[in-house]
Amino acid sequence: MFKKILVANRGEIACRVFRTAKKMGIATVAVYSDADARSPHVLMADEAVRLGPAPAAESYLKAELILDAARITGADCIHPGYGFLSERESFARACAEAGIAFVGPPPNAIAAMGDKIESKKLAKAAGVNVVPGFLGEIADTDEAVKIASDIGYPVMMKASAGGGGKGMRLAWSEQDVREGFEATKREGLASFGDDRVFIEKFIESPRHIEIQVLGDQHGTIVYLNERECSVQRRHQKVVEEAPSPFVSPEMRRKMGEQAVALSRAVGYYSAGTVELIVSGADTSGEGFYFLEMNTRLQVEHPVTEEITGLDLVEQMIRVAAGEKLSFGQSDVRIDGWSIENRVYAEDPYRGFLPSIGRLVQYDPPAEVDAAEGRTRVDDGVLEGGEVSMFYDPMIAKLITWAPTREEAIDRQIAAIDEFVIDGPGNNLDFLSALMQHPRFRDGALTTGFIAEEYPDGFTGAPASPDLLKALAAVAAFAATAEADRARRIDGQLGKRLRPPSAWTVRIDGTDHQVDISTDGVVVDGDDLDLALEYTPGDHIVTAELGDEELTVRIARTRTGFRLTTRGASHVARTLPAHVAPYAQHLIEKIPPDLSKFLIAPMPGLLVRLDVKEGDAVQAGQPLAVVEAMKMENILRAEKAATVKSVEAKTGDSLAVDQVILELE
User: How far is CA 402 from the centre of its chain?
Assistant: First the structure.
């Protein structure tokens, strides 16, 4: 067994590998960029080596610096994590040439599966179902239009070396191809150093299902069941679960056997994932097609671990050390159900725009390991740390396990309510809304689920009248506690003033009359069976509402509180009942008109400016392209206008809400 492992990665996955390595008694080495000098993965490792400046191209993507770090520290193996160099054949070969074990598959397997065009040819030869499409190189946009027309719309354009949702465009028409082909090439070049694009038929009502495989260097390959990854936004996975609510035992067997056949055809060992697109309309068990093989550990590997009882990182390390798998296909089990939600630094209330900044407060839910259910948090951040524009915006992975799917979902809702993040925007409310959505709970999923269910964006999960009454009571109770604290430390004029007990609480535009007394809580004339404790400064309130437990994240505002629970944030204005009638006389502040400006919706790089001063533009016309988190975002004109002035130039680093140009 290895003595010392270096993880050529950062954040959550580096911490994940270190946890297993420490459990196995293996010493650990971290590498870091200047942006990560005080990150948790650096603090967690036994040793740490600086690579270079913050940009990945100058640090985590420099194989020679990582190999130097391994030599300096005496590491005898390197785990690449996911992303960065994890699927670079050249890196795996360089490790072998340096006499350092690569904790992953052999270089030839990485090469065979790393090219999406060649991998589909290999899959077809191995007897694996493949999606109809054009697998050759495409010269230009005109040829792309002809190919798409021959295949039949809709089609998907993909960067050949792409992954992680980057370098993908869906085209429903010739116009979509003409507009998106060059952007797909640019994204492929920027993210993967390869601008080749291929085109394939888009399967309608598709489900994204993947098979986890694991092989050793002695010829044994097994499949560890499937994961359902259909809930995606812009081809980026948001929710993953194992097993799939759609896959039958017979379909699982067929998928698994094809995944093993493909792995065997390329001499695969270590952990890998065969991704499949599955027709949700096909109940025959035959409607699945090969998408790609990821020759690395997947972000969503924890859900497989939870239902099989296997530590995939440990298995990878043992395989790299030459050990045989200690189990066979018949030993692989499915125990209960597991769900993973990806917690991202993005603002779902503003079109899921990336968000960066300092984690002013970070308090994840407590981890639980019990017979009735488990809650697990895989993260690589700390309170006070920075979510940087240089790397992936994922903050944490929230994983739950329970005997049934319904119970695993309910554990997610409860854990999300306890998750406190203050600083950059985050998608916790959206994740909770997904978990509560009737269609998700029914398992009626497709990769278009989010686009279909939230066509106009996300505004928060709907709240029942009973929930709003309960929140009004929580706000009034907190306001009473705040007023009581104030009268204890202020003034001391002799007469001991009692805090107000009658409040008017406005939530979502509706006023609720709340009375707090020693006899109980009355909301709008109805007695509420509510019990809670609140001390000024608390960020979490747990209320007993009848037989139900309600966890609420609470934050003070100028006129009341922001209450977050069950997938939505509600601003509660709390006024003493005798003061509330005067609020109607306040002058309403009218927000400024910003419609004449093109504003950067996120921090990013202005990579293209399509207009100049004096140009006439039409509604829907592309005006600029901003790159953020390695994704290109096209900014369009909302109405017909003329460009009055241009305030930024190509190559500028833009702050959020920075003016790019003014229209008239």
Answer: 22
